[in-house]
Design brief:
The chain is mainly beta and 150 residues long. The chain has a single domain, classed as Beta Barrel (Elongation Factor Tu (Ef-tu), domain 3), CATH 2.40.30.30. Helix content is 7%, strand content 40%. A six-stranded antiparallel beta barrel has the order 1-2-7-6-5-8. Strand 5 and strand 6 form a beta hairpin.
């Protein structure tokens, strides 16, 4: 069982941050979802209201006992409720280390904007200069998830 991986930052859909021009969620999905998560006990205030997409190929993240799972979150009228899980994690870039969360909308309840199986979405504090192509070392909380070969 592995809880560590190195990954490469990749561009996402721009929907979580609200940058995607064709998205029905101009404010960004994370900003719209955050009050619903806060009402259930998870405060996203320490994090940027966007996701960092990390490709950990050839590995995939498998949920075991996430720190938080919220079922049937009704955060929009564009589609039905979704289920979300969050796994505590640590990211390192050189000698800089931050704590964050793996943000995992459950694919069976997520109607659009799916990610490849090797790409995980992260909620992190601001990392100055972070850009696609950057390499990050990921460590997920033991017992909450594991990283397996896909």
């Amino acid at each position: 069982m592995s809880t560590r991986a190195q990954g490469v930052v990749v561009a996402g859909h721009g929907v979580a941050s609200g940058r995607a021009s064709a998205s029905p969620f101009a404010a960004g999905t994370i900003a719209l979802q955050a009050p619903h998560f806060a009402a259930r006990g998870l405060d996203l205030a320490p994090f940027v209201m966007a996701t960092v997409n990390l490709d950990i190929a050839p590995l995939t993240l498998v949920l075991r006992a996430p720190r938080w799972t919220f079922v049937d979150v009704e955060w929009t009228d564009v589609h039905g409720p979704e289920t979300f899980s969050f796994v505590e994690c640590t990211l390192a870039r050189g000698d800089e280390e931050v704590t964050g969360l793996v943000y995992r909308p459950h694919p069976e309840t997520k109607p659009m904007h799916h990610q490849p199986s090797t790409v995980i979405e992260l909620l992190l504090p601001r990392l100055a200069g972070l850009a696609p192509g950057d390499r990050l070392d990921l460590r997920v909380a033991e017992g909450q998830a594991e990283l397996l070969r896909s």
